[in-house]
Amino acid sequence: MHLNADRAVLRNVRLLGDQDTFLVNARTRAYVVNSYIEGTTDFIFGDGTVVINASTIHEKRSTGSAITAARTDPARTYGFLIYRSTVTGTGTDNTTLGRPWGQGAQVLYRESTLSNTIKISQPWTNMGDATWQNARFSEYRNTGAGATVNSNRPQLSDAQAANYTPQRYLAGADGWNPL
């Protein structure tokens, strides 16, 4: 799916693919809720803003890969928010939460359940010369066998998390709130 629309709401949809399943372009603000997204490599990607809420994200490759490839403009605060969702996969300890398609990429997994498919020790990876350490990758209060806290898993504080809510991601200049 190639989404190039502002203020898009996708409710109860199934996005099935392999690599590059769901492209969120720069002009896009999208709210995805109660849905299912499946793929293999960088299957949620782009330079737009998306909140994926109460959904299932499934890595179907048994050897694992990166789920997201954000290319957030460094001047923009918000990119991808995976919120209160479930991440599953067919492999064990072999899938990464994401890799930066460009410097400054922003992805947050917040209050989600991460299965044992997620790499515990190194859940973020590099893409070309874009390093995960220079991206704005973080987690907040995730649970499940694939969730932990270590030096390779930046965590938001409670005070920081107050600024990274679905409403803030989607508000834009017009105050849009599809929740």
Number of helices: 2
- How much helix, percentage-wise, in residues? under 10%
Radius of gyration equals: 14 Å
The overall pLDDT, averaged over residues, is 97
How would you describe the shape?
Answer: globular
Helix and strand pattern: EEEEEEEEEEEEEEEEHH
Regions with little confidence, pLDDT below 50 for 5+ residues: none
User: Tally of extended strands?
Assistant: 16
The SS-based structural class is mainly beta
What is the strand arrangement across the widest sheet? Answer: 2-5-8-11-14-16
Please state roughly what percent of the residues sit in beta strands, choosing from under 5%, 5-15%, 15-25%, 25-35%, 35-45% or over 45%: 35-45%
The biggest beta sheet is recorded as: 6 strands, parallel
Question: What is the end-to-end distance?
Answer: 22 Å
Kindly describe this structure.
- The chain is mainly beta and 179 residues long.
- The chain has helices at residues 158-161, 166-171; strands at residues 2-3, 6-11, 14-16, 22-24, 29-33, 36-39, 44-46, 49-53, 56-59, 66-70, 80-83, 86-89, 96-100, 106-110, 113-114, 136-140.
- The protein has a 6-stranded parallel sheet with strand order 2-5-8-11-14-16.
- The longest helix has 6 residues, at 166-171.
- It is globular.
- The two termini are 22 Å apart.
